[in-house]
Amino acid sequence: MNKFSRIALKTLLWIVGSVIGLLLLIIFLIRLPSVQNYIAGKVTSYVEGKIGTPFHIGSINIEFPKKLVLENIYLEDQSRDTLVAGEAIKVDINMMKLLNNTVEIQQLEATGITAKIRRSLPDSSFNFDYIIKAFAGPENKDTKTDTSSAMVFNMDKVLFERFHIVYADDVIGTSADVYLKHFNTRIKKFDLTKNMAFDLPKINIDGLSAVVTQWNPVQEGTAPSVEDFGITDSTAIVTSLLPDIGINTADLKNINVRYEDKSSKLKTKFAIQKLYAEINSIDLNKEHVAIEKINLEGSDAEVLFDKIAQVTKPVTEKNTVSTPSKINWVVSVKDININDTHVWYKDDNQARMKGFDYFNIKIPAINTSMNDLYYSADSISGFSKVLNCQRPLGFRNQRPKS
């Protein structure tokens, strides 16, 4: 090897060594708390300057090359109310695939998160619209969207602990307060294109409380669209199709859901201690659900209709013909086991009946085992091996033939 070759080789090795050393130095510095706090301060200042409302991140922990942890997050909306607040968000993301328009998240964890979303009149705007506008680039009508470079989302493990969402929508007259204590799943398919598709082999929920109130019937065209959430990708096509959902196993514990529709005077409550289900298929568009097994332990269900004031509407061309939507749902379950379940159905719009009142049924302590349950719009069938239920008057029926 001549002198020139040795010099060239040493120079090349020095360059490669310098790059590796610089990379190692950056990795080392990024892991220092002081550097991470400096990054958090810079991010906070930039976002606050961009959106014009208070924003804070307590710390940013970057575990190179793909793990990002945000702690003590706080964001206010323009009304000085909390928009998002949380203890920690942990994201295990493949940084390299971002260069190929692919967001691949191996693990997403959110702990102690609170989000408050509002849509108000008269402009039908959400309380986060100003953030989307602040980060949106100038609109160019002449630019054609490249559908071949649409962003692809992939996700695997998801874990939520103490997740609280408050939603109020004056446009459709709906509010919801949902608190999720624990939720975890693994996602095999996460497709946001067309009508969307999600495949979650197993869902585990422990502790869910929800209160949903609706005071105005939903009108066509008033439901939130994808554009309302800042999604302008051409692959997010407006479609009447519902999402494709795949769930094999659902393990639910400590569920408490209340729903009230003030326009129809409907009040419902569903409290479940344990519910385990093995699901063969769910097709929301064809309105078909096939379930292999359901085990229900300790539940309380109420469906109550308060008295509705009778209003006589004048006969017009618009309301002389009414075409109700046809219900085509078909549900089949091979094996059902229900223990210690309480049911109450009451409709105050119907006159009370002597003897067995079909519009005021309250049955405590139902225990039953059934096979081959089938429900459709025109028929219900099934075979009951054991049925044990009690009524307040002491009615008791055991082991019917069918």
Key terms:
402 residues; 2 domains; 3 helices; 16 strands; 13% helix
Q: Quick recap of the structure?
A:
The chain has 402 residues and is mostly beta strands.
Number of domains: 2
Proportion of residues in helical segments: 10-25%
Please tell me how large the radius of gyration is: 28 Å
| Structural class designation | mainly beta
Number of strands: 16
Helices, by number, come to 3
Biggest β-sheet description: 16 strands, mixed
Query: How much is the average pLDDT?
Result: 80
For the termini, the CA-CA separation is 95 Å
Shape: elongated
Low-confidence stretches: 392-402
- Measured by DSSP, the beta-strand proportion falls in over 45%
One letter per element, helices H and strands E, the order comes to: HHEEEEEHEEEEEEEEEEE
Describe it for me?
13% of the residues lie in helices and 51% in strands. With 402 residues, it is mainly β. The protein folds into two domains: 55 residues, no CATH class; 298 residues, no CATH class. The protein has a 16-stranded mixed β-sheet that branches. The protein is elongated and about 110 Å long. It starts with a helix and ends in a 5-residue tail after the last strand. The relative contact order is 0.06.
